[in-house]
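Try this one yourself first.
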């Protein structure tokens, strides 16, 4: 709920929508509304931050992580002993060619798959030791997912898509509606609350997906090729939005990507090849050029 004061008669309006004309003196409220929006946005900077999280430096740790898929009598190793520590509040990009194991690692961190050997810790909790209920709780409360194909439910509005995860978190209807509206405003879709996915552009759908990922104040956002189905400009807008959330809210972002613009926004880049970490690079030490990473092989 925003409080807007008329610059002429000082009448105060409490609203969740947009007010351009004072209902009392009919003065132009556009500038006052814009300023209130900027203040509200700064205040909402902590909306994705989970205040209940612990103070461990590393929010994700993998130790000797291995994954072997069996096809009949044939064993196909996807991960061959991955050791990786991810700091709280970090923006990390995972790169690798098709079949390198980056998606498998991504799924392990997200609790969508279990390792054949080794461990994956989320805030010092060994995910392999959790039962189905505990794992579902952790995924619901601690991790937000953004997919390349958006994965929105087509018969639901933007607001309904965003509030759906909140149902499983046990929020009341009023809490869900208020938070859902706030999240959609945060991603620039305050005027699209009741639009269904087919009524939105690709970029707008991905913004809804970002808002949905933030539904339950996750400590981690996993973004799987989030710009893969978007044009260059729209992709850049999504990257800028994720970077802003990372900087303002301290949410940890882990992205599997080939998009150099997303790598440019990262703190570190992890290169995976043949199921192993080939190298880890700091963004500050990279010579990022159009079309390739200097000194990098493919990826």
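Now uncover the answer:
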């Amino acid at each position: 709920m925003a409080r807007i004061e008329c610059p002429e008669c000082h009448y105060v309006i409490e609203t969740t929508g947009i007010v351009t004309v004072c209902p009392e003196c009919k003065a132009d409220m556009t500038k006052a509304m814009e300023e209130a929006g900027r203040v509200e946005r700064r205040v909402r900077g902590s909306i994705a931050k989970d205040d209940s999280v612990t103070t461990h430096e590393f929010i994700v740790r993998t130790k000797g992580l291995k994954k072997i898929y069996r096809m009949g009598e044939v064993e196909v190793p996807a991960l061959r002993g991955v050791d990786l520590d991810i700091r709280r509040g970090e923006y990390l990009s995972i790169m690798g060619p098709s079949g390198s194991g980056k998606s498998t690692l991504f799924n392990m961190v997200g609790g969508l798959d279990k390792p054949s050997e080794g461990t994956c810790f989320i805030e010092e909790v060994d995910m392999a030791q959790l039962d189905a209920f505990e794992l579902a709780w952790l995924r619901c409360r601690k991790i937000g997912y953004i997919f390349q194909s958006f994965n929105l439910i087509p018969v639901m509005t933007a607001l309904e898509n965003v509030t759906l995860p909140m149902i499983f978190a046990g929020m009341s209807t009023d809490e869900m509606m208020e938070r859902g509206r706030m999240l959609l405003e945060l991603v620039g879709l305050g005027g699209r609350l009741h639009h269904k996915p087919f009524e939105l552009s690709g970029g707008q759908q991905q913004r809804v997906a970002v808002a949905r990922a933030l539904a339950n104040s996750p400590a981690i956002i996993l973004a799987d090729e989030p710009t893969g189905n978007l044009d260059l400009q729209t992709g850049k807008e999504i990257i800028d939005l994720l970077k802003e959330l990372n900087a303002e809210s301290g949410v940890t972002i882990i992205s599997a990507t080939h998009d150099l613009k997303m790598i440019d926004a990262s703190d570190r880049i992890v290169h995976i090849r043949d199921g192993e970490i080939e190298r880890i690079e700091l963004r500050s030490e990279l010579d990022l050029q159009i079309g390739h990473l200097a000194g990098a092989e493919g990826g």
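Discussion: The chain has eight helices and 14 strands. Helices lie at 30-43, 102-109, 132-142, 158-168, 173-186, 202-213, 232-249, 260-264.
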